[in-house]
Structure formats: structure tokens, C-alpha cells
Amino acid sequence: MSNGGYLDIADNIEEKIATGIWAVNDKLPATRALAQDYDVTPLTMQRALTRLVEKGLIRRTPRQGSFVCNSPMATTIGLLLGKTMSNLPSPFYMALMDEFQKQAGDFGFTTAEYVVFDHASIYNSMSAFEKDSASGKLRCVVPVYFNDLASRWLDQHPNIPFVTAPRINYEKIVYLGLCQLIEKGYESFLVLSALREPEMTDFGRDLGRMQASGIRKACQKYGVSTEQVQLAYAADDEAAAYKTVKSHVSSDGYVGNVGNNKLGIAVLNDLSVRGVLMALLEAGLRIGHDVGIVCHQNEGLEIFSPVELTQIKIRPADLVQMTLRYIKQNLLRLKPGVNHIENELVEPIFVEGKSV
Asked: pLDDT at residue 170 above 50?
């Protein structure tokens, strides 16, 4: 190719990557050598390579060179699990896996699973991952369920794009839950946070702000003081949720005077729900009469509740569709490392039950 513009050169190199002439992880010739091959100046070649970096096809490392990091033909999405399917802590994660497998084909993708929960599984997943990565078919990795081992595993692969799930609109979950409880006449409120403790991570701070905003907006709408709302941290800990609620309903001025101080509980993590139900039933409280409860999810928990639970749900299908759409729209722009889905929130839906 002689005297080609930098866009034409970038397109030609992209075609070579797409057809496998240069595979993922291959090192490209030096800039000057490429400039000679294409009969252009080094500056023009620099612009062509910059274009390929912007499209996410190559990465450039100082003193090491340019490497292919993506292929337009890569159509496999790796699903990273920190536990085996049978040991996932919530049916919600199993539903996510099902939805990824159902919807991937609609977007032109296939899926591969990498399970990382002990050292043996790390070895097996590493072998499968290295094979998929070397073949050039792996587009990115989506962490479906995280643990410390899975997090370290990702840290060991900084050149692979991994896409975090879109954020859930916890402000609206809290707001809808509290509004429902206030409208039903409950007078004091306990919100069990989706966090285990006030986390100092960006995720924790963001989620904490959404929770606080949801509480504030619901209270403002009905003229309720925020002092009537207690925020407790239990998250995915059933035992902690049990202890928190048991302590709350056993305090002076509640049990024995239920009619004067009706308690409404909003549970923001489905793994806390069973602990909440056990504490309420042990206290002899009638759910939906003496105490109201609105929960985030309740799949698999129906047998523990004497009444149908009122829910503020996130549909797994919505979360997966949003994730796959983001990957499809940014197919060649996914960068190595973390790719956050910005400016979109997964919206909850209200499912009426009989627990408020």
C-alpha cells in the first residue's frame, strides 16, 4: 500500500487482525518498520496505530511495542464465577447465568464459564482461559459472582477487558419500599442496607449515597422525619440480619406495644431476608399486621414466610440485556482492565404482596 492515508492503513491492519494474520497477543512490527512497509512517514503510521488503540484493537507499551489485544472476530464472553453453580448463595446469580446463556446468541455472542473458588479450580479455569484467549475468540470477561480469589484472578490478567454489571438503582428501591410502608401506616422504619458495613470503596460510597437519597426523598414526600428511619448494615449476612432485627423488636417500647409503634422493614439484600423472617416469627409478630416487610428479592424464601412477600425486584433479564448491549455497542472499544457501564441504571419493579 503506497501513500495511503492513516485511516486506510488502520483499516488494513484491522483487516489483518480480523483474518488472523496478526492474532491476539501478537506483537506488531516496530513503527518505523511498518512505515516502510506501507510507504508512509513514521508520523502517519503513528496516527494509524493511535486510531487502532482508540478502537481497542491494540495496546502500546513504552519500550516494548504494540500488541494486538482484541479481534473483531472475538465473540465469546467469559462468565466469571467465584463459586460453583450449585453453591451460589442466591437464586438471583443462577438466574443471571441462565439469562446470559439465553440472550448471548441474540447479540451474536457465545459464553464460556470460568469458575474460581479454590486452587484446583483456578488451575482448571486458567487452562481454559489461556486456551480461549490464545485462540483470539475471547471478547471480554463479565464477573457474575465475585470473591477474593476471583478478584485476584482478574488482577493477574490486566490485559483482558472485563465488564462490570450496570449499577442497580438502589435509591429507587429504598424510595419505593419506604413509600409503601409509610402509605400503609407504619410509624418507625428499619432499612437493612445492601452493604455489610459503610464501605470506603467507590462502589460502597456510591451505593451509600443512593440509599441515603432514597430515604430522604421518601420522608420528604410524606412529611416523615428521617429520625424515624434507622439504617442497619447486614447485607448478605443472614445471621447479622437476624441479630439486628431480633434486637430491634425486643427493645423496650416495641414488643407489647406493637399497636403504638408499628415497625416497617425494608430489606435491600435477598440474602438477609430469611434472617429477618426468623427474627420476626420468633418474636410472635404477625407479618403484614404487627410489622411490615418489603424485600429486594425473595426467590426460594416463600416457604419461610406465612404470607406472600411484597418485593422491589430487579429482573435478571434486564441486567443481562443492558450488559450485552453495552458490550455489543463498544465491541472494539473495550479497554484492557475494568470497563464500567456508565450513565445507565437497572430499574426495579414493584411486586405487590401481603407483607405490608
From this structure: yes
Q: Does residue 353 fall inside a structural domain?
A: no
Other Cβ atoms less than 10 A from the Cβ of 261: the count is 13
Whether residue 304 is found in the same domain as residue 195? yes
User: How many Å apart are CA 189 and CA 216, to the nearest integer?
Assistant: 13
Closest CA to 66 of 8, 100, 107, 24: 24
Model confidence, pTM: 0.77
Residue range 308-355, pLDDT digits in tens: 999 999 999 999 999 999 998 887 677 778 888 888 899 999 999 999
Burial class (CB in 10 A: 0-12, 13-18, 19+), 323: buried
User: Residue 291: inside a domain, yes or no?
Assistant: yes
Q: What domain range includes position 123?
A: 76-163
CATH of residue 10: 1.10.10.10
Q: How confident is the model at residue 71 (pLDDT cuts 50, 70, 90)?
A: low
Q: Residue 64: exposed, middle, or buried by beta-carbon count in 10 A (0-12, 13-18, 19+)?
A: exposed
Nearest to 262 by CA among 153, 182, 142: 182
